[in-house]
Amino acid sequence: MFFLSMKKVLCVLLVLANRIVTNATVTYTVPASAATGATALDPAPVGLSFEFFAFPSYFKNVTATNQCLQNFETLTGTWPPIRIGGTTQDRATYDPNTSAYVVYTVAASTDAPAALTFGPAFMTLAGTFAGSVVLGLNRGHDNITNTIAAAKIAKSSMTNLLAIELGNEPEYWSGVQPIASGTWTPATDAASQDDWDIQVGQALSTQSIIQAGNSNSAPPTWGAAELISTENTTAKSYVYDYAHHNYPGGTLTSLMSHSSISSNVEIFTSDIVAATSVQKEYVLGETNSVSGGGAADVSPAFGAALWTMDYALRTSLANIKRTYFHHGTIGACYYCWWGRYDMGAPYYGAYAAVAALAGGSYISALDDGSTNYAVYIIYDSARKPLRALLYNSDYYAVGTGTRGSQSFVLQGLTAASVKAKRLTAAGAGSRVDQGSNPTFGGQTFANVTCAIGGTEVFESTAVVTGAATFTVAASEALLLYLQ
Ligand SMILES: *[C@@H]1O[C@H](CO)[C@@H](O)[C@H](O)[C@H]1NC(C)=O
Ligand SMILES: *[C@@H]1O[C@H](CO)[C@@H](O)[C@H](O)[C@H]1NC(C)=O
Ligand SMILES: *[C@@H]1O[C@H](CO)[C@@H](O)[C@H](O)[C@H]1NC(C)=O
Ligand SMILES: *[C@@H]1O[C@H](CO)[C@@H](O)[C@H](O)[C@H]1NC(C)=O
Ligand SMILES: *[C@@H]1O[C@H](CO)[C@@H](O)[C@H](O)[C@H]1NC(C)=O
């Protein structure tokens, strides 16, 4: 009898434990209005970076590009900001006499060129884009005459020019680039940046024109605080903003983990404070999941889409004004949001982030970033809650047992019911090119054209005495429309 009843008790406990694992609950109260500490949002925080040599091909030879960018504009009314740059900006020489966008030769179409030239048409093409453009020019070659010649054409032919970068990831130049032929340290690079910022700014007769920094190695060794400490008032006057690069890497599980994303973004806290203390913006000028074009087993997967979504919101929360997701060599780019043929799963995460942030003026998080579960609130210009984004970053892969879920109880809701769009896929490993398309609000994006397809699905949840429960499966997110 005794043993039997113990067994019963154990059974009940096991059932309870199982329910806690698969269907735990977190409860939060949605503030009636944005707190004083809520972060102000850029009109278009989700940007794209295009590798310098590949930029003309993306815009002239890849059908999806314009529609993929326009889909964001349809959501927000603002074209996403773009940045043109990368390693090949410091391999590029401006040639005023070529009519081509870019001129180079490579052994294989998936190679990046070791050297290239570009003509005025490159800047004319960049000037046709309807959103803002940050243009990365060459400092590595140590030919400021050539860079100023290109900068002048950029200034005169691009009404959308937001800023110019002078050099990409200078910490890797030692033994590679002529400008780094002597001693090359954070301090010598900073002195070089300050000098070039002043010379290029003066040649253009334009202040607030340089996107400075552009390192990838983590601060404080390379970063905005270190750079700013070397700048006098003159150098500072030519800086528009400070940028850093970031490729978190790791496994798919660690990449998409909300607590990992939160701690990764915290690396930049001191640099963000340093930039804002001199009244400048701070951005991630080049970023994506894994460096070097991505990792085959991580970057094209739906889990990387969830990373893209959460990271775009977490960086915005941290007062990183714009985050430019890098797009490299066409046909050799695991993290790319689209290619010539197939869409990439990460585009769905970017789209969900843009949908969450669209028209928002402020953002706050209700969670502290220490768990796998995220709750963001996006507020309108009157500081009223506009949307909420719920993210369950528990890792679930197809074929690994029952998919768990997390219940989010939200209190303080004012409407009678809440509409929602779900970002989901069969599992974190789902890839478009392997036949497993994610969906956002039931919709997909067509290969080659990037046209949105399928019927838009809104879920509806009743609000009872100001509260509602939303269930989000492992490796899934839910966007709530609060107005
Ligand atoms: C587009 O592709 C064609 C054919 O592959 C090529 O000749 C042309 O140079 C490309 N144009 C750009 C801008 O990349
Ligand atoms: C461009 O062409 C002009 C003559 O048309 C020539 O004088 C000049 O040296 C050329 N510049 C370059 C960079 O090739
Ligand atoms: C630097 O650029 C200028 C202008 O484009 C060019 O005339 C000159 O030859 C370049 N100098 C070197 C050392 O390449
Ligand atoms: C500011 O620093 C630059 C070097 O970065 C120097 O050439 C310039 O003279 C300095 N200006 C002032 C006003 O001190
Ligand atoms: C895109 O193409 C892949 C095959 O490469 C296919 O598995 C997938 O279903 C297609 N996506 C859509 C939305 O049609």
UniProtKB/TrEMBL annotation:
<dbReference type="InterPro" id="IPR031728">
    <property type="entry name" value="GlcAase_C"/>
</dbReference>
<feature type="signal peptide">
    <location>
        <begin position="1"/>
        <end position="24"/>
    </location>
</feature>
<dbReference type="InterPro" id="IPR052974">
    <property type="entry name" value="GH79_Enzymes"/>
</dbReference>
<feature type="domain" description="Beta-glucuronidase C-terminal">
    <location>
        <begin position="376"/>
        <end position="479"/>
    </location>
</feature>
<protein>
    <submittedName>
        <fullName>Beta-glucuronidase</fullName>
    </submittedName>
</protein>
<dbReference type="InterPro" id="IPR017853">
    <property type="entry name" value="GH"/>
</dbReference>
<dbReference type="Pfam" id="PF16862">
    <property type="entry name" value="Glyco_hydro_79C"/>
</dbReference>
<keyword id="KW-0732">Signal</keyword>
